[in-house]
Here is the input.
Amino acid sequence: MLKVLRPGLAQLLTPVGRALARTPLTPNMLTIIGTVGMTAGALSLFPTGHLFAGTMVCTGFVVTDMLDGTLARIRGNTGVFGAFLDSTMDRIADSAVFAGIAIWLATGGHDRLSAAVALFCLITGGLVSYAKARAEGLGLHCDVGIAERTERLLIGLGAIGLSGLGVPYILPIGLWILAVLSAFTFGQRVFAVRKAASHRPVG
Here is the structure.
């Protein structure tokens, strides 16, 4: 849904990528740094109720994570392992965000229903990504969905951050919206794969 913003974002990050290209940092290093930072921030700050601070830390490392692709393109060393590492690390970081907020909701937040919804978002987010990866592994097109990773993070971190600023009810509302959109996106991808597979000759 936010794919239209990617060209503009790429132009914005290109000067930073060029500066990083003059350092010893590699794209894979940036991927790991972003994941470790985001995971540490989410699992240390969200469970203790520091929702706004945790959101700021996670958002900062999301930007770091986005720079790995920019740096790889500038250096001309994009590769299969880099793409694999980036996708795998994304799943770890996303899981940390929703696990961290689920822990908070189940303990200090005293909202077990919303904690369950957060875990549902974690699971469906993984399924959305898996459906695309598995389809592409079978040679099928599956680049569809109303709520891809960028949209899911925007809704999730936005709701968490606003809740940390004291906006009432925004966190459960955001989680429920995200749960519905994630489930719908998973359904879209399953339908897209079924349609693509039906047009492929048997054998």
